[in-house]
Design brief:
heterodimer; A: 472 residues; alpha/beta; 13 helices; 20% strand; B: 12 helices
Chain lengths: 472, 428
Amino acid sequence: MQFLLFFPEITNRVPGGPVKSISVALATFVLFAAGCAEETEDKGSVAFESRYEGLAAQTTLITGATILTGTGDRLENADLLLVDGKIAEIGADLSMDDADIVDATGKWVTPGVIDVHSHLGVYASPGTQSHSDGNEVTSPVTAEVWAEHAVWPNDPGFTTALAGGVTAMQILPGSANLIGGRGVTLKNVPGRNVMDMKFPGAPHGLKMACGENPKRVYGGRGQAPATRMGNVAGYRSAWIDAAEYRDKMKAAENGQGEMPKRDLKLETLVGVLEGEIIVHNHCYRADEMSVMLEIAEEFDYKVGTFHHAVEAYKIADLLAEADTCSAVWADWWGFKMEAFDGIRENAAILDQAGACTVIHSDSGIGIQRLNQESAKVMGAAARVGMDIPPESAIRWITANAAKSLGIAEQTGTLEAGKMGDVVVWDGNPFSVYSKAERVYIDGALAFERGNDDVNPVTDFTLGTAAAAGGAQ
Amino acid sequence: MNRFITVIALFAVSLPASAGPTAIVNGKVHTVGPQGTIENGTVLIVDGRIAAVGSDVVVPEGAETIDAGGKIVTPGLFSPYGHLGLVEVSSSAGPVDYSQRGEQFTASFDVADAYNPRSTLIPINRIEGVTRAVIAPSPGYPDETGSGHIIAGLAAIVNLGDDDFLDQRAAAMVVVLGEGGASLSGGTRTGAWLMLRNALNEALDYREHKGDFERGMRREYTHSMTDLDALQGVINGNVPVIVSIDRASDIEVLLKLVNEYSINAIITGGSEAWMLADELAAARIPVIVGPTANLPGNFDRINARLGTASILAAAGVKIAIADSDARTHNARNMTQSAGNAVAYGLDWDSALRAITLTPAEIFGMAASTGSLEVGKAADVVIWPGDPLELTNYPDAVFINGESIPMVSRQTLLRDRYLQSDKPPAYRD
């Protein structure tokens, strides 16, 4: 019985979490033991599960727009219908009784923007020491910590990101540690706690970090890792521990030996080995990313996404072959040695090589304009003959980002049956002058430019310019 | 390594000497000067300067003619604040020459001597239109004992050409106040104001009693003679003070202090400056605005918002535009900053002015650069379309009339990795 709960792939999945991490199953077990979790079939009965309910959805018909579907298509003078929080239909001359009609003539419609790399809530504004909750800089491997346990829902950055069309994002721990802990994917709606915001069914991420940051932080204290060699030894040691833990549990399941004591760190790592937690690996240099792919090979896990990946363009073919996404900036470079070779065409070269390409922010300001970051890449690519049309580039901040986070089945494109996560832009989203005019999350109008009746205001910003709409 | 050095050396010799006149014809010329915008305009460059601008300019025989093909022609971009040429890599990779630890040097700390015109940052930014830049010391940080100083030192103005790059030393004095100043002066903003007042008072006393001081007949100062010498320009009103300040209440104190000491101030940061737009206009204090800085990064910026540029401009405040991340490695992104200012209310012409002529005016350079006017330095950029649009990068850049090679370390990396014929190390 115990073991069945540890390994959900051989038992019934607990509803409410399509991708069940071992740790969540463990939490279930703990609750069982306490005799207070008899309702395993009920959503919300598992600790830290999503309690996202969404805003009140309206039946909405958006008409006459230029639609970038996120699947690679561009539709002109097209309509999009939202029913029951989902995308019901896309096409020409749609109609629906009792729908709110949004005349989007001359406007552009895209899937909701998704940022795979944010620290909103864990490095919240104001950026005081009191709000510094993203790096558990006490040990190089802290797989046991979860970003969601520190997310402050009143970070004003959530609402400004919403005004930039962001409907979902992954909140990650920082990059001080080799293994920094679990990331969490959120819907960009206000909540009283993080559970209210958690994207239903999204897998956890595991933040890992290459290069300068871990070795600087720990080397500076005279402890390992002090070099990139030490970094790699640190990852490998952690995976050896995880594999041993997994093997002991499996053996115990077969009646051999005792079930090991629950270990928060190792159960997260086992979640990766079991393919249920997605690796998000901060890594800049091409050579280091290549080494990380070797480690993944050695321990039989997959690197889901390299984050920052400033030199990804040097190994675009390897990344395409590994089916590993690269989440990059348009043009950040030079702030440290491993960022010295950044070029604006990075994303474009990856895209042309067939590698999964994502534009990310890592910034409370940048997250508000992921469309603009994409546009800079498009323009740079065009200079060297790489023509990347809007219908392709939009995928960097929608469909490909959804793939990176393991939520592509639910969102990221405008296809019938998917979540009604939609942005209406007042023009071509790749123009510096264009702004998100309306943002729908699960079919509910979550943001409407200039409409105080619709737009959320965080507790923190009450009484400020932001509350008066000035920050949006 | 040798190959890299070779490439750099090639840069140094590949610039064409300023030969005869150059005429850029058939451009949509945004002069940012009294001539406004000229359709089918010509910009004539002679001896590094603009010799003529207009729709009926006679191109002299033998002039090199560049047909802009109806594209946009603007003045070069003037970066209003940053650290170009003072840093290669910001962290853990050698000196960062704009940030002095402790309080050994304050007002006399002059970044001009550290400027490197061969920095990789220079080509990367100039091929995207940046032709002049204010290079500034940053507020620095306290030393191991916690000592620091709110006076960071002297900024300079450079052009991003290869020769005669130093336009002006001691173009401004940089001072940090508010929360940043508090951290350098014992933990309070009052401490920061006292530190500034003390420096100004000592500079005034020194001015009046320099002879006595040198004869040992005047009290000791807390600042060195070199620092007090450097402050003379400030108290004489010749050197403006760039004040890093955000909170409205701090700006109110600044308004009084500027009046009291008759000094000229320029605000950078200015998150809450929009709340005092009329007062700043009346006091003729310009603001270097970051149009996208709408988050309350600290309690000094609690009323940060979008639209600051347009609110200040409407009140008559002189504004220069560059977001904080568009000031050094990516100074080139000041066009994006300006575009965002337009998205939130600033008119387009004012936005272009805020990245060209207005910063030149703020720093006393408008007589020689900042607009396409006869007699000014020929800092000219040809764009394929709207320069504020994200997808448009310059086709050609001239600095002091010199045509800039459109090559940077980044374009070399790009071009190397767009090839696949040989292993990377053997490609161009």
